């Protein structure tokens, strides 16, 4: 479980995150939604340690990630996997080498054990027989799958996905959503997904946090969101604009 | 961003970069690849530039020192002086400085663009999220590789500069090979080689560290990656010439 308490972040004197409190539960997809510029990407970067918050706590279990120094953060980071908006695949490496990379860096597995693990992950994301291809040779959906495989290869506890559907057609988007939701349940991990795709919200949104101008504006589930929009004009405007 | 802010950020970048590698086996394989990229891939251009520069320097020096003029109707300067001038300038200036200015364009721009591209495509962030010291992972192998292979290239360039002079003597009647060799031997001093190597190591560090730094802090898109390459080359050239002056003053200043 991840808990955020009173998270603040500003850039050049402008508050981007304003006292956000949130809880992300394990084994269910946690969605962070909001318009572009609402602060959801900044929140995600704070969560994974790419940006330091100005104030507030980021609790991974009972450890405050925000108050740790660079070296102390490393053992939490080893439990984190991230799917980036642009995939961030290493373009000089093949699919197999991309997924093998964290194993090479952080485990003592021999090459055949690493290959077994890579193939196991590729099977989990339903991407077989692509081991020797380079990122430039595969489709957008396949890149997402490789990104997910690389993120989960180290038996992580936390998975962060920044706009996992960006650049994908609607059909592939649904497949990727379902894959992330399935892995979350199967691996029992805490997954946080940044999205502005309402289809994702309706499909897999078990725990949804709506961010508006840097503040947590609403929290609920996909079953509650339709009722909530009636009395929440900012949420209603966001949902309407999304369709 | 003013100079001092930029310099402070460079110092912090180097502090983050100069760390023990997290996994020696991975570091070793990257180091070998970088040595190939920086060294072997630059060998041809260094060879060509050194030979041509050596030849041109010999012809021009001979022309200026040995051509009788209205002021000095007869030739006053012995021919071997040309060899002395060419060999000394090659060791002290042409081999380290010209070679490194060329490498600034080839290696420096390449490193800045490569790291800049990794930055804008979030690959650097991916390293960080994995718990890898991204600055050290991307920059340290390049800096160590540069410090190993660039001085080697400079030593090769030094021999080829003299060889360029040897070739030039075949195309001029003003100077013979014996004159060139005699002059070179007469003024050779081992101290000069030491100065050349000091320059080589410092310039190698400047090329690789400044270009890595410039690439690492790239923000934006493809245009900014190009700008990072250009900025890296400009800064490297300025710093190479600045340190060239300082080293000359320290070791050769009267």
Write a structural description.
The complex is a heterodimer of chains A (243) and B (254). With 243 residues, chain A is an alpha/beta fold. Chain A has a domain at 1-79 and 159-164 and 189-243: 3-Layer(aba) Sandwich (Rossmann fold). Helices cover 40% and strands 25% of the residues of chain A. Chain A has helices at residues 40-48, 70-77, 95-106, 111-124, 140-152, 170-187, 198-204, 225-230, 233-242, and strands spanning 2-11, 14-24, 29-33, 55-60, 63-64, 80-83, 158-162, 190-195, 207-212, 215-220. In chain A, the strands form 2 sheets. Chain A has a 6-stranded mixed beta sheet, sandwiched between helices. In chain A, strands 2-1-4-5 form a 4-stranded antiparallel beta sheet, covered by helices on one side. In chain A, a hairpin with a 2-residue loop joins β1 (2-11) and β2 (14-24). The two termini of chain A are 32 Å apart. Chain B has 254 residues and is mostly helical. Chain B has one domain (23-252). Chain B is 83% helix and 0% strand. Chain B contains 8 helices and no strands. Chain B has helices at residues 3-17, 24-66, 80-120, 123-130, 134-169, 177-187, 190-216, 222-252. Chain A binds chain B through residues 48-50, 73-75, 77-78, 80-82, 84-91, 102, 104-106, 160, and chain B through 22-23, 25-26, 121-123, 125-126, 128-132.
């Amino acid at each position: 479980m991840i808990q955020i308490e009173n998270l603040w972040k500003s850039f050049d004197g402008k508050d981007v995150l304003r006292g956000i409190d949130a809880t992300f539960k394990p084994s269910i997809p946690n969605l962070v939604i909001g318009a572009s510029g609402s602060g959801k990407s900044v929140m995600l970067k704070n969560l994974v340690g790419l940006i330091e918050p100005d104030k507030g706590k980021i609790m991974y279990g009972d450890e405050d990630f925000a108050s740790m120094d660079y070296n102390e953060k490393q053992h939490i980071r080893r439990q984190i996997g991230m799917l980036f908006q642009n995939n961030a695949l290493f373009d000089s490496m093949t699919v197999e080498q991309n997924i093998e990379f964290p194993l090479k860096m952080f485990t003592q597995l021999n090459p055949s054990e690493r290959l077994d693990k890579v193939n196991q992950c590729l099977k989990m994301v339903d991407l077989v027989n692509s081991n020797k291809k380079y990122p430039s040779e595969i489709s957008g959906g396949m890149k997402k799958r490789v990104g997910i495989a690389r993120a989960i290869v180290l038996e992580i506890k936390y998975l962060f996905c920044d706009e996992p559907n960006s650049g994908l057609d609607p059909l592939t988007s649904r497949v990727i959503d379902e894959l992330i939701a399935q892995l979350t349940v199967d691996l029992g991990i805490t997954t946080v997904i940044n999205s502005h795709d309402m289809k994702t919200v309706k499909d897999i949104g078990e725990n949804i946090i709506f961010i508006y101008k840097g503040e947590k504006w609403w929290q609920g589930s996909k079953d509650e969101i339709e009722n909530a929009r009636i009395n929440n004009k900012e949420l209603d405007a966001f949902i309407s604009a999304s369709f | 961003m003013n100079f001092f802010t930029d310099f402070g950020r460079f110092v912090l970048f180097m502090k983050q970069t100069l760390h023990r590698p997290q996994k020696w086996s991975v570091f070793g394989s990257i180091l070998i690849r970088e040595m190939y990229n920086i060294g072997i891939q630059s060998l041809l251009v260094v060879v060509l530039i050194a030979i041509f520069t050596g030849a041109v320097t010999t012809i021009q020096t001979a022309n200026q020192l040995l051509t009788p003029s209205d002021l000095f109707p007869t030739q006053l300067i012995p021919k071997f002086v040309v060899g002395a001038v060419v060999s000394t300038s090659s060791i002290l200036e042409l081999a380290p400085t010209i070679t490194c200015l060329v490498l600034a364009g080839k290696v420096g721009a390449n490193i800045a663009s490569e790291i800049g591209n990794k930055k804008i495509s979030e690959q650097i962030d991916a390293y960080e999220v994995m718990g890898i010291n991204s600055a050290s992972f991307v920059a340290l192998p390049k800096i160590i590789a540069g410090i190993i292979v660039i001085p080697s290239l400079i030593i090769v360039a030094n021999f080829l500069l003299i060889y360029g002079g040897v070739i030039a003597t075949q195309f001029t009647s003003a100077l013979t090979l014996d004159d060139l060799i005699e002059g070179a031997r007469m003024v050779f001093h081992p101290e000069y080689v030491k100065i050349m190597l000091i320059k080589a190591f410092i310039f190698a560090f400047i090329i690789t560290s400044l270009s890595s730094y410039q690439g690492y802090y790239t923000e934006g898109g493809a245009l900014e990656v190009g700008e990072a390459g250009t900025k890296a080359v400009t800064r490297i050239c300025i710093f190479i010439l600045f340190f060239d002056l300082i080293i000359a003053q320290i070791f050769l200043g009267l």
